Amino acid sequence: xxxDDGSDIPGVLNLLSQDGFASIDNPGQQPFAQRKWKTPNQxxxxxxxxxxxxxxxxxxxxxxxxxxxxxxxxxxxxxxxxLCDSALVFIRExxxxxxxxxxxxxxxHSNLILYDRLNGSLWQQATGEALTGPWQGRxxxxxxxxxxxxxxxxxxxPDAEVATDRSGRIGYHRGHTYGDYDxxxxxxxxxxxxxxxxxxxxxxxxxxxxxxxxRWLVMVDRPEFFHTIIEGQTGRMIVLNRPGAESGIPPxxxxxxxxxxxxxxxxxxxxxxxxxxxxxxxxxxxILYDQEGNEWGIQGRALTGPRKGxxxxxxxxxxxxxxxxxxxxxxxxxxxx
Length: 337
Known about the structure:
5-stranded antiparallel β-sheet; 5-stranded mixed β-sheet
């Protein structure tokens, strides 16, 4: 498929040839518990659709950046841009047309530009927006994800699958590192981004963004336990974070650790739950409780109470380096926890 040139889009840079990083299409699957992992903190993109759960190791995406898969009957594209540390999963279907995504070889604000193999249109990975073609200006639907450690995955989803390439591998090794890129003192390459935003935090600080109607609320991502209750324009929301996985970006020194955030709406079936966070996880795995007498686990499912078995509504949050986020969403509102 011949893709659009994109030369008339401000800020687009040609870095590689089309499919210079070849996507993995229709990946293999193996039982997660049967794999051997190098460390308990190895990072995974974890996608859940109804009862189907699959892990996608960042090591598998390092030299591929896109995996076109089908999970629970839904066609998805699992994507990761290491330069922005933006892991996003899209439903690769619009107007009842299913298509695969590939790596265009182009960047904008250091962020991966994808292309679809139906029309050759270009798509911005950080936003899911079509930059060219018949769907220009429209956005792909995103799915909620978690970046989990292998240890947490085994504990929470022991019966899940892990994606592999067709030969059964779960990682690639370029043989080099990103040096000090993934450090708080690091900087994006000036050759890959024209104008760096002026920010109150370091450019390479990871930030967590929560949607609230037409605006985005942003907070610093931290590798520690914290929670934030947001009284937003669209209602009450709760964000819960725990220490998470190692960075998927290979450094010259120690890997940074980032958080494992989850976010839920406080409203369920039209009722405000007034969720609160326990000081510590309960013996039954509960981390939240509400005014109705329900207790909720880390997967957002009611473990006890009149709503036992019901599911909280997840909020699709995003996380990436601060410079990348504010390059695309400069009007985001900072939250102070």
